Amino acid sequence: MSGGEQQQDQPRRGRRGGGDRDGGGRGRDRGGDRGGERSELVDKLVHINRVAKVVKGGKRFGFAALVVVGDQKGRVGFGHGKAREVPEAVRKATEAAKKSLVRIPLREGRTLHHEVNGRWGAGKVTLRPAPVGTGIIAGGPLRAVFDALGVHDVVAKSVGSSNPYNMVRATFDALKQQLSPKMVANKRGKSVAEILTARRGGGAAVEAATE
Q1: Residue 165, domain CATH
Q2: N or C: which end of the chain has fewer CB within 10 A?
Q3: CB half-sphere exposure, 2, CA atoms < 13 A
Q4: Rounded Cα gap, residues 44 and 144, in angstroms
Q5: pLDDT in tens, 95-116
Q6: For residues 40 and 35, what is the distance between their CA atoms, to the nearest angstrom?
């Protein structure tokens, strides 16, 4: 009887052990992939606003959060969320920002292609490309957008409203007007070299600027 019990127990232990090893390995791989996808996006908390509603017995507080999300490789988005608690408001804003991601063409992966103006309500911004080593010369809300976008050299000026919502929306309005030489060439039916030659008055550094 003892020998039969040992023979019956051995296959069961083998099946359980093998199942745990296989299942556990696949679970770790999937978890690692999901973690890698999450780590690609960087979120920046731009502003938190607290509002109070006066009710019978006291005040009821609520919070609104403005968040910018980007992969630092040319994609960026923003969103806002409201909740009774700050963490929940930030979570809602982050989810909304991930759904509104847009791709912006960057020159050499570090700066803008050309100067552009943006406006939203009373907020106005001017964005200019800058040479290597300039850094991000911009205010708080604008800096958060450039950090998430992956811009390393830019000069930005905000005029008018200092409301962070208007400033961020004006910045996105300007960024959406960015056109790379390839995009202009496709619209005009010309080659990239012709576009750059007409703009710069020469054909030097054509290949580097097309990236």
Answers
A1: 3.30.230.10
A2: N
A3: 0
A4: 6
A5: 999 999 999 999 888 899 889 9
A6: 9
